Amino acid sequence: MRFLVFLAVVGTFFSVGCGNQTKVDAKSPDTKIVDAPDVNVVTIPHPEKFPLAPVELHKSANQLSANGVVAPDVSRTVPVNSLTSGRVVDVRVRLGDDVKKGQVLLTMSSPDISAAISDYRKFQADEALARIQLERSQLLYSHGAVPQKDLQVAEGVAQKAKVDLQTAAQRIELLGGDLKQPSPLLEVKAPTSGTIIEQNVTNSAGIKSLDNSPNLFTIADLSHVWVLCDVYENNLSQVHLGDRATIQLNAYPDRKIEGRVSNISRLLDPATRSAKVRIDLPNSSSLLRPNMFATVLFVSQGSQNRMTVPVGAILRLQDRDWVFLKLDGQRFRRTEVQAGTTSADGQQEILSGVKAGDQLAANALQFSRAVENATEQP
């Protein structure tokens, strides 16, 4: 009997030692469950030294910031080309110059205009001769010296010579020549007033006709310009036609220009996955210049309630945003939040993680350092 009791005791100890085979009964009176401490809950001595900031609800509009660039208004941009080939003799203007309509931009020698002037003079002589022959035929016909068919032939020749002369004159005018002063030197003039924003010609350069050659010049009326912004596709829902836009130029950081969204492109750039958003702006003071960089803040027309806290209440750590939420007395909880945009008055939106009315440490960075110092002290 003693041997059997000894085996029972040994078996009990063996079963306790083999943890993989033993099940603990949580309902047993000898079992105690101890909660692990929450590492995000911290205790700070003298919490009164750290001011608190409440999570408040504010009614505000959606805001989106994007980079933009100033560009000429395409509808006010005119390319300058030559309808004939030739060689440049003299360039009168340069890139960035302001020009008036009809102002001479360059002078070129053109074989085509020379040929047109030669044809015009030939047809001019033919027309004069045909006119004299017609007058002679009319005189002879009036005296019965020639039949009517000869008069009709003379009238046809004179009419044909007149048409040829008009066609030659129109060709010279089309090429840009002057009938009053026919010359092989052709003057290319500005078709409109504006600023030269592109130049692809220099002195002594050869000029081709319109067969895939670049524009000689491009003239733009910069009294109205565009600001073009790239808005990524995941942010397009936040921008609408008519939304207010505040433009801040890198060249003039102290000045802000107000505008409205006038166009949102229906096409996305396949490389950047963004769409062009356009703002039309008057530019009578010539403050805006093409290719200037700008930062644009889009403000939606509607508004909604948003939770906001002071910017200092949010701690950026390891690419995540944290706040210190007051629990009671000396206890605070370090809580992860999702931060939104920052307004001009120093308030930052919180999208999730806390609720309205919660009390947070107003200076999260200072509070975090105090917690670290308290932890290091014995």
What does this structure look like?
Mean pLDDT is 85; it is low at 1-22. The longest helix is centred in the middle third of the chain and has 32 residues, at 111-142. 24% of the residues lie in helices and 36% in strands. It has helices at residues 2-17, 111-142, 148-175, 364-376, and strands at residues 41-43, 52-54, 56-60, 63-72, 77-80, 86-91, 98-99, 104-109, 185-189, 194-199, 206-207, 217-220, 224-232, 244-249, 256-264, 274-282, 293-299, 304-310, 315-317, 320-328, 331-342, 347-352, 359-361. Strand 14 and strand 15 form a beta hairpin. It has 378 residues and is α+β, with helices and mostly antiparallel strands. Among the domains are: 43-60 and 304-376, Beta Barrel (conserved putative lor/sdh protein from methanococcus maripaludis s2 fold), CATH 2.40.420; 65-75 and 222-299, Elongation Factor Tu (Ef-tu), domain 3 (Beta Barrel), CATH 2.40.30.170; 111-183, Helix hairpin bin (Helix Hairpins), CATH 1.10.287.
Low-confidence stretches: 1-22
CATH topology description of the domain at 43-60 and 304-376: conserved putative lor/sdh protein from methanococcus maripaludis s2 fold
Portion in beta strands? 35-45%
Structural class: alpha+beta
Radius of gyration: 43 Å
| Proportion in helices | 10-25%
Query: What sequence of helices (H) and strands (E) makes up the elements?
Result: HEEEEEEEEHHEEEEEEEEEEEEEEEH
Helices, by number, come to 4
Taking the sheet with the most strands, its summary is: 7 strands, antiparallel
- Overall mean confidence score, pLDDT: 85
Shape: rod-shaped
Distance between the termini: 59 Å
Count of distinct strands: 23
At CATH level 2, the architecture of the domain at 43-60 and 304-376 is Beta Barrel
**CATH top level assignment of the domain at 43-60 and 304-376:** Mainly Beta
